[in-house]
Amino acid sequence: MTLFSRAVTAVTAAAPVERLITGSRAGRALASRFVAGDDLASGAEVATGLATEGLKVSLDLLGEEVHDVEGANRAVEGYLQVLDVIGSNRLDANISVKLTQLGLAIREEMARSAIDRLAERAAEVGTTVTIDMEDSRYTEATVDIYADAQSRHGNLGVCLQAYLFRTPSDLERLEGLGGHIRLCKGAYREPPTVAFQSRHEVDAAFRRLLMVLMRSPSTRPAIATHDPEMIRLALALAEERDAGFEFQMLYGVRPAEQRRLAAAGHDVRVYVPFGSSWYPYLTRRLAERPSNLGFFLRALVSVAERT
Question: Catalytic residues, which ones?
Answer without folding.
Answer: 132, 182
